[in-house]
Specification:
About 35% of the residues lie in helices and about 15% in strands. The protein has about 350 residues and is an alpha+beta fold. It folds into two domains: about 240 residues, DNA primase, PRIM domain (Alpha-Beta Complex); about 70 residues. The strands form three sheets. Strands 1, 2, 3, 4 and 10 form a five-stranded antiparallel beta sheet that branches. Helix 3 packs antiparallel against helix 5 and helix 5 crosses helix 6. The protein starts with about 20 loop residues before the first helix and ends with a helix. The N terminus is likely disordered. The chain binds zinc ion. The site of zinc ion (ZN) has 7 residues, from helix 3. Zinc ion binds next to helix 3.
Length: about 350
Protein backbone atom coordinates (compact mmCIF):
# COMPACT_ATOMS: atom_id res chain seq x y z
CA UNK A 1 0.00 0.00 0.00
CA UNK A 2 1.29 3.45 -0.85
CA UNK A 3 0.43 6.42 1.30
CA UNK A 4 -1.85 9.08 0.02
CA UNK A 5 0.60 11.74 -1.27
CA UNK A 6 -1.72 14.47 -0.08
CA UNK A 7 -2.97 13.74 3.44
CA UNK A 8 -5.38 16.65 3.26
CA UNK A 9 -7.12 15.20 0.27
CA UNK A 10 -10.24 13.71 1.79
CA UNK A 11 -11.42 12.38 -1.55
CA UNK A 12 -9.07 9.39 -1.18
CA UNK A 13 -10.22 8.56 2.32
CA UNK A 14 -9.83 4.88 3.12
CA UNK A 15 -12.58 2.89 4.67
CA UNK A 16 -11.19 2.29 8.14
CA UNK A 17 -11.39 -1.35 9.05
CA UNK A 18 -11.34 -2.19 12.72
CA UNK A 19 -10.06 -5.73 13.17
CA UNK A 20 -8.84 -7.35 16.44
CA UNK A 21 -12.06 -9.22 17.00
CA UNK A 22 -12.08 -11.55 19.98
CA UNK A 23 -13.40 -15.11 19.92
CA UNK A 24 -15.96 -14.10 22.53
CA UNK A 25 -17.28 -11.31 20.30
CA UNK A 26 -17.71 -13.77 17.44
CA UNK A 27 -19.60 -16.25 19.64
CA UNK A 28 -21.78 -13.47 21.04
CA UNK A 29 -22.56 -12.20 17.57
CA UNK A 30 -23.71 -15.59 16.32
CA UNK A 31 -25.64 -16.52 19.46
CA UNK A 32 -27.37 -13.18 20.09
CA UNK A 33 -27.41 -11.18 16.86
CA UNK A 34 -27.24 -13.53 13.87
CA UNK A 35 -30.75 -13.76 12.43
CA UNK A 36 -30.92 -17.20 10.84
CA UNK A 37 -34.27 -16.39 9.19
CA UNK A 38 -32.57 -13.86 6.95
CA UNK A 39 -30.84 -16.76 5.18
CA UNK A 40 -34.13 -17.58 3.45
CA UNK A 41 -33.64 -14.50 1.32
CA UNK A 42 -31.06 -16.52 -0.63
CA UNK A 43 -31.22 -20.14 0.56
CA UNK A 44 -34.12 -22.47 -0.07
CA UNK A 45 -35.69 -23.54 3.24
CA UNK A 46 -36.96 -26.91 2.07
CA UNK A 47 -33.56 -28.18 0.91
CA UNK A 48 -31.69 -26.71 3.89
CA UNK A 49 -30.81 -30.10 5.49
CA UNK A 50 -29.07 -31.16 2.27
CA UNK A 51 -27.03 -27.97 1.86
CA UNK A 52 -23.28 -28.08 2.34
CA UNK A 53 -21.70 -25.55 4.69
CA UNK A 54 -18.05 -24.74 5.35
CA UNK A 55 -16.27 -22.85 8.11
CA UNK A 56 -12.97 -21.32 8.98
CA UNK A 57 -12.63 -22.00 12.69
CA UNK A 58 -9.89 -20.22 14.63
CA UNK A 59 -8.14 -19.08 11.45
CA UNK A 60 -6.14 -22.32 11.17
CA UNK A 61 -8.79 -24.96 10.80
CA UNK A 62 -10.99 -25.06 7.71
CA UNK A 63 -13.80 -27.55 7.50
CA UNK A 64 -16.47 -28.25 4.88
CA UNK A 65 -18.82 -31.15 4.09
CA UNK A 66 -21.16 -30.15 6.90
CA UNK A 67 -24.95 -30.21 6.82
CA UNK A 68 -27.43 -29.31 9.54
CA UNK A 69 -30.89 -30.82 9.89
CA UNK A 70 -32.34 -27.62 11.36
CA UNK A 71 -31.32 -23.98 10.92
CA UNK A 72 -31.11 -23.75 14.72
CA UNK A 73 -28.34 -26.38 14.64
CA UNK A 74 -26.33 -24.21 12.26
CA UNK A 75 -26.78 -21.21 14.55
CA UNK A 76 -25.75 -23.26 17.57
CA UNK A 77 -22.63 -24.54 15.80
CA UNK A 78 -21.65 -20.99 14.90
CA UNK A 79 -22.26 -19.85 18.48
CA UNK A 80 -20.04 -22.54 19.99
CA UNK A 81 -16.93 -22.18 17.86
CA UNK A 82 -15.26 -18.90 17.08
CA UNK A 83 -16.23 -18.84 13.41
CA UNK A 84 -13.91 -16.62 11.42
CA UNK A 85 -15.66 -17.27 8.13
CA UNK A 86 -18.84 -19.11 7.20
CA UNK A 87 -19.75 -20.37 3.74
CA UNK A 88 -22.68 -22.00 1.98
CA UNK A 89 -22.13 -24.55 -0.76
CA UNK A 90 -24.48 -26.42 -3.08
CA UNK A 91 -27.53 -28.59 -2.42
CA UNK A 92 -26.98 -32.36 -2.63
CA UNK A 93 -29.25 -35.41 -2.70
CA UNK A 94 -28.26 -36.30 0.89
CA UNK A 95 -26.90 -34.44 3.89
CA UNK A 96 -23.08 -34.51 4.05
CA UNK A 97 -20.87 -34.96 7.09
CA UNK A 98 -17.27 -35.01 8.18
CA UNK A 99 -15.75 -37.98 9.95
CA UNK A 100 -16.60 -38.31 13.64
CA UNK A 101 -15.91 -40.94 16.29
CA UNK A 102 -19.29 -42.47 15.52
CA UNK A 103 -19.59 -42.06 11.75
CA UNK A 104 -17.37 -42.22 8.73
CA UNK A 105 -17.25 -39.22 6.42
CA UNK A 106 -19.95 -38.75 3.77
CA UNK A 107 -18.78 -35.97 1.48
CA UNK A 108 -20.11 -34.02 -1.49
CA UNK A 109 -18.40 -36.60 -3.71
CA UNK A 110 -20.39 -39.46 -2.17
CA UNK A 111 -23.76 -38.03 -3.17
CA UNK A 112 -25.45 -36.43 -6.14
CA UNK A 113 -25.18 -32.68 -6.81
CA UNK A 114 -28.68 -31.19 -7.00
CA UNK A 115 -28.20 -27.48 -7.54
CA UNK A 116 -26.66 -24.17 -6.63
CA UNK A 117 -27.72 -20.57 -7.03
CA UNK A 118 -26.09 -18.58 -9.82
CA UNK A 119 -23.63 -16.24 -8.13
CA UNK A 120 -21.40 -13.44 -9.42
CA UNK A 121 -18.48 -12.05 -7.47
CA UNK A 122 -17.06 -8.52 -7.67
CA UNK A 123 -13.91 -7.67 -5.77
CA UNK A 124 -12.12 -4.30 -5.67
CA UNK A 125 -8.70 -5.99 -5.59
CA UNK A 126 -9.29 -7.25 -9.15
CA UNK A 127 -9.05 -3.59 -10.19
CA UNK A 128 -5.53 -3.12 -8.77
CA UNK A 129 -3.93 -2.46 -12.17
CA UNK A 130 -6.34 0.40 -12.88
CA UNK A 131 -7.39 1.84 -9.53
CA UNK A 132 -6.92 5.62 -9.64
CA UNK A 133 -6.63 5.96 -5.85
CA UNK A 134 -3.78 4.67 -3.72
CA UNK A 135 -5.60 1.48 -2.66
CA UNK A 136 -4.12 -1.95 -3.22
CA UNK A 137 -5.28 -5.42 -2.24
CA UNK A 138 -7.70 -5.33 0.66
CA UNK A 139 -7.99 -1.54 0.84
CA UNK A 140 -11.04 0.25 -0.42
CA UNK A 141 -11.92 3.94 -0.44
CA UNK A 142 -14.77 6.01 -1.78
CA UNK A 143 -13.08 6.36 -5.16
CA UNK A 144 -12.50 2.69 -5.88
CA UNK A 145 -15.78 1.67 -4.28
CA UNK A 146 -17.34 3.65 -7.13
CA UNK A 147 -16.00 0.91 -9.42
CA UNK A 148 -17.99 -1.67 -7.43
CA UNK A 149 -21.10 0.51 -7.65
CA UNK A 150 -20.76 0.92 -11.42
CA UNK A 151 -20.10 -2.77 -11.92
CA UNK A 152 -23.17 -3.71 -9.89
CA UNK A 153 -25.36 -1.24 -11.74
CA UNK A 154 -24.34 -2.50 -15.16
CA UNK A 155 -24.54 -6.19 -14.18
CA UNK A 156 -27.93 -5.77 -12.57
CA UNK A 157 -29.41 -4.31 -15.76
CA UNK A 158 -27.64 -6.87 -17.96
CA UNK A 159 -28.94 -9.82 -15.94
CA UNK A 160 -32.47 -8.44 -15.91
CA UNK A 161 -32.76 -7.21 -19.50
CA UNK A 162 -30.42 -9.35 -21.59
CA UNK A 163 -31.16 -12.60 -19.70
CA UNK A 164 -34.59 -11.86 -18.23
CA UNK A 165 -33.72 -12.79 -14.64
CA UNK A 166 -36.06 -11.30 -12.07
CA UNK A 167 -34.85 -12.33 -8.63
CA UNK A 168 -31.50 -10.72 -7.97
CA UNK A 169 -30.15 -10.28 -4.47
CA UNK A 170 -27.07 -8.13 -3.98
CA UNK A 171 -24.93 -8.77 -0.93
CA UNK A 172 -22.10 -6.72 0.53
CA UNK A 173 -19.52 -9.40 1.34
CA UNK A 174 -18.23 -7.55 4.40
CA UNK A 175 -14.87 -7.23 2.65
CA UNK A 176 -14.04 -5.42 -0.54
CA UNK A 177 -16.91 -6.25 -2.86
CA UNK A 178 -20.31 -7.61 -3.73
CA UNK A 179 -21.93 -10.91 -4.50
CA UNK A 180 -24.95 -11.03 -6.75
CA UNK A 181 -27.19 -14.04 -6.11
CA UNK A 182 -29.49 -14.82 -9.05
CA UNK A 183 -32.38 -16.71 -7.50
CA UNK A 184 -34.71 -17.42 -10.42
CA UNK A 185 -35.59 -21.12 -10.12
CA UNK A 186 -34.15 -22.14 -13.48
CA UNK A 187 -30.64 -20.99 -12.49
CA UNK A 188 -30.33 -23.56 -9.72
CA UNK A 189 -29.60 -26.48 -12.02
CA UNK A 190 -27.45 -24.71 -14.62
CA UNK A 191 -24.32 -26.72 -15.31
CA UNK A 192 -20.80 -25.32 -15.40
CA UNK A 193 -20.87 -24.84 -19.16
CA UNK A 194 -24.09 -22.82 -19.02
CA UNK A 195 -22.76 -20.69 -16.16
CA UNK A 196 -19.60 -20.17 -18.13
CA UNK A 197 -21.67 -18.96 -21.10
CA UNK A 198 -23.46 -16.40 -18.92
CA UNK A 199 -20.31 -15.04 -17.37
CA UNK A 200 -18.50 -14.94 -20.71
CA UNK A 201 -21.22 -12.73 -22.16
CA UNK A 202 -20.50 -10.12 -19.49
CA UNK A 203 -16.79 -10.73 -18.96
CA UNK A 204 -14.94 -8.36 -21.28
CA UNK A 205 -11.56 -8.31 -19.56
CA UNK A 206 -9.49 -11.44 -19.69
CA UNK A 207 -6.63 -12.00 -17.31
CA UNK A 208 -7.46 -8.96 -15.15
CA UNK A 209 -4.15 -9.10 -13.30
CA UNK A 210 -2.00 -9.68 -16.37
CA UNK A 211 -2.25 -8.25 -19.86
CA UNK A 212 -5.93 -7.31 -19.35
CA UNK A 213 -6.89 -8.08 -22.90
CA UNK A 214 -10.26 -6.58 -23.83
CA UNK A 215 -12.68 -8.94 -25.51
CA UNK A 216 -14.26 -7.82 -28.73
CA UNK A 217 -17.99 -7.26 -28.33
CA UNK A 218 -19.87 -8.91 -31.15
CA UNK A 219 -23.19 -7.93 -32.66
CA UNK A 220 -25.13 -10.20 -30.30
CA UNK A 221 -24.04 -7.99 -27.44
CA UNK A 222 -25.11 -4.62 -28.81
CA UNK A 223 -27.33 -4.08 -25.76
CA UNK A 224 -24.34 -4.49 -23.50
CA UNK A 225 -22.26 -2.10 -25.55
CA UNK A 226 -24.93 0.57 -25.54
CA UNK A 227 -25.28 0.07 -21.77
CA UNK A 228 -21.56 0.50 -21.17
CA UNK A 229 -21.60 3.80 -23.05
CA UNK A 230 -24.71 5.02 -21.29
CA UNK A 231 -23.68 4.06 -17.78
CA UNK A 232 -19.93 4.44 -17.69
CA UNK A 233 -18.91 7.28 -19.98
CA UNK A 234 -19.50 10.23 -17.71
CA UNK A 235 -17.87 8.85 -14.56
CA UNK A 236 -15.06 7.28 -16.56
CA UNK A 237 -14.11 10.49 -18.28
CA UNK A 238 -14.48 12.61 -15.18
CA UNK A 239 -12.31 10.36 -13.09
CA UNK A 240 -9.64 9.24 -15.50
CA UNK A 241 -9.72 12.13 -17.98
CA UNK A 242 -6.18 13.43 -18.50
CA UNK A 243 -4.53 10.03 -18.12
CA UNK A 244 -6.79 8.45 -20.70
CA UNK A 245 -6.47 11.30 -23.17
CA UNK A 246 -2.73 10.91 -22.89
CA UNK A 247 -3.04 7.20 -23.62
CA UNK A 248 -5.05 7.80 -26.77
CA UNK A 249 -2.51 10.35 -27.99
CA UNK A 250 -4.30 13.66 -27.46
CA UNK A 251 -1.75 16.47 -27.06
CA UNK A 252 -1.28 18.20 -23.73
CA UNK A 253 -2.84 21.52 -24.70
CA UNK A 254 -5.85 19.82 -26.23
CA UNK A 255 -6.13 17.64 -23.15
CA UNK A 256 -6.44 20.64 -20.86
CA UNK A 257 -9.25 22.02 -22.97
CA UNK A 258 -11.06 18.71 -23.07
CA UNK A 259 -10.74 18.15 -19.34
CA UNK A 260 -12.19 21.59 -18.71
CA UNK A 261 -15.14 20.89 -20.93
CA UNK A 262 -15.75 17.55 -19.35
CA UNK A 263 -15.59 18.92 -15.88
CA UNK A 264 -18.52 21.07 -16.79
CA UNK A 265 -20.31 17.74 -17.12
CA UNK A 266 -21.29 18.19 -20.72
CA UNK A 267 -22.33 14.58 -20.91
CA UNK A 268 -24.08 14.83 -24.23
CA UNK A 269 -21.05 16.39 -25.82
CA UNK A 270 -18.90 13.52 -24.63
CA UNK A 271 -21.27 11.08 -26.22
CA UNK A 272 -21.38 13.09 -29.44
CA UNK A 273 -17.63 13.11 -29.96
CA UNK A 274 -17.21 9.37 -29.42
CA UNK A 275 -17.76 7.33 -32.57
CA UNK A 276 -20.16 4.81 -31.09
CA UNK A 277 -20.85 3.07 -34.36
CA UNK A 278 -17.32 1.74 -34.56
CA UNK A 279 -17.70 -1.68 -32.96
CA UNK A 280 -14.36 -1.90 -31.23
CA UNK A 281 -12.76 1.45 -30.74
CA UNK A 282 -9.98 2.53 -28.51
CA UNK A 283 -12.07 4.75 -26.28
CA UNK A 284 -14.49 1.94 -25.60
CA UNK A 285 -11.65 -0.45 -24.75
CA UNK A 286 -10.13 2.02 -22.33
CA UNK A 287 -13.47 2.63 -20.68
CA UNK A 288 -13.91 -1.11 -20.26
CA UNK A 289 -10.37 -1.45 -18.94
CA UNK A 290 -10.72 1.29 -16.34
CA UNK A 291 -14.35 1.06 -15.24
CA UNK A 292 -16.16 -2.02 -16.47
CA UNK A 293 -17.07 -4.97 -14.22
CA UNK A 294 -14.29 -7.44 -13.45
CA UNK A 295 -16.09 -10.63 -12.57
CA UNK A 296 -14.32 -13.48 -10.82
CA UNK A 297 -15.54 -16.15 -13.21
CA UNK A 298 -14.37 -19.08 -11.06
CA UNK A 299 -16.95 -18.17 -8.41
CA UNK A 300 -19.76 -18.28 -10.97
CA UNK A 301 -18.69 -21.39 -12.83
CA UNK A 302 -17.68 -23.76 -10.01
CA UNK A 303 -20.97 -25.28 -8.89
CA UNK A 304 -19.43 -26.86 -5.77
CA UNK A 305 -17.69 -23.75 -4.58
CA UNK A 306 -18.41 -22.35 -1.14
CA UNK A 307 -19.65 -18.79 -0.99
CA UNK A 308 -19.58 -16.46 2.02
CA UNK A 309 -22.76 -16.72 4.04
CA UNK A 310 -24.77 -13.48 4.09
CA UNK A 311 -25.11 -12.22 7.65
CA UNK A 312 -21.75 -13.69 8.69
CA UNK A 313 -18.88 -11.52 9.91
CA UNK A 314 -15.91 -10.85 7.66
CA UNK A 315 -13.09 -11.46 10.10
CA UNK A 316 -10.54 -9.23 8.38
CA UNK A 317 -12.77 -6.18 8.41
CA UNK A 318 -15.28 -6.83 11.18
CA UNK A 319 -18.13 -5.88 8.88
CA UNK A 320 -21.23 -8.03 8.65
CA UNK A 321 -22.08 -9.23 5.15
CA UNK A 322 -25.51 -7.88 4.39
CA UNK A 323 -28.25 -7.68 1.79
CA UNK A 324 -28.20 -4.52 -0.27
CA UNK A 325 -31.15 -3.12 -2.20
CA UNK A 326 -29.23 -0.41 -4.03
CA UNK A 327 -25.63 -1.50 -4.65
CA UNK A 328 -25.06 1.58 -6.83
CA UNK A 329 -25.35 3.87 -3.79
CA UNK A 330 -24.14 1.69 -0.89
CA UNK A 331 -20.78 2.27 0.85
CA UNK A 332 -19.03 -0.26 3.17
CA UNK A 333 -19.13 2.27 5.98
CA UNK A 334 -22.93 2.01 5.91
CA UNK A 335 -22.61 -1.65 6.96
CA UNK A 336 -22.99 -2.98 10.49
CA UNK A 337 -19.74 -3.67 12.33
CA UNK A 338 -19.23 -6.37 14.94
CA UNK A 339 -17.59 -3.89 17.34
CA UNK A 340 -20.70 -1.73 17.31
CA UNK A 341 -23.00 -4.73 17.69
CA UNK A 342 -21.21 -6.64 20.44
CA UNK A 343 -19.49 -3.70 22.14
ZN1 LIG B 1 -9.41 3.25 -3.30
Amino acid sequence: MTDNPNPDDQSDKKVVFKPSISDEQLKTYYSDHFDIKLLWKVLDRESFPRREFGFDRTGHYFTRNKSFSQPEDLKEYMSIYPIRAAYAGAIYADPVRTKTKKYSAFTIHDTEWVGRELIFDLDASDYDPVRQCSCKGRDVCEICWGLMQDAALIMDETLRIDFGFKKLQWVFTGGRGYHCWVLDKETLTLNQEQRSGLVNYMQLINDPGGDQRIEKINNDSILLKERIFRMLTERFVLETKAKVFEEIGIKKTARATMVKKIEQKLYQKIIDIIPQKIPHNQFFDLMVKYRYARIDHKVTIDTRRLIRLPGSVHYHTGYVGQYIDNPESFYPEDAKHIQDITG
